[in-house]
Amino acid sequence: MAQFTAHASDITCDGCANAIRRALGRLDGVQSVDVDVPAKDVTVQYDESKVDRSQVMEKLSRAGFDSTLKD
Question: What's phi and psi for 45, nearest 5 deg?
Fold first, then answer.
């Protein structure tokens, strides 16, 4: 299990958080998605044998949330 955190400055509300959870949750291999609205951070736990970090970041971007990796 791998994990990373990305900062997405476009996160403004719980609706954004729900949209991110839905979009990333559809990816095979994503185990959990935690969205911290005030910090504008998205933490993703995923199975590296099914999906990689770049695929998750691309899905986040396609959902309308451009982001940068924090770690």
Answer: -105, 135
**Distance between CA atoms of 11 and 16, rounded to whole angstroms?**
6
Give the tokens for residue 30: 């994503």
Say if pTM beats, i.e. exceeds, 0.85: yes
State how far the Cα of 67 lies from the Cα of 1, in Å rounded to an integer. Answer: 21
Residue 56: the pLDDT is 97
- DSSP assigned state of 65: -
CATH number (domain holding residue 21)? 3.30.70.100
For residue 15 the two structure tokens come to 């609706």
Q: What angle do CA 12, 21, 50 make, to 5 degrees?
A: 140
Structure-token pair, residue 39: 């910090």
Return all residues near 17 (Cβ < 8 A) that are at least 6 apart.
11, 35, 37
Looking at the structure of the chain, the number of domains it has is 1
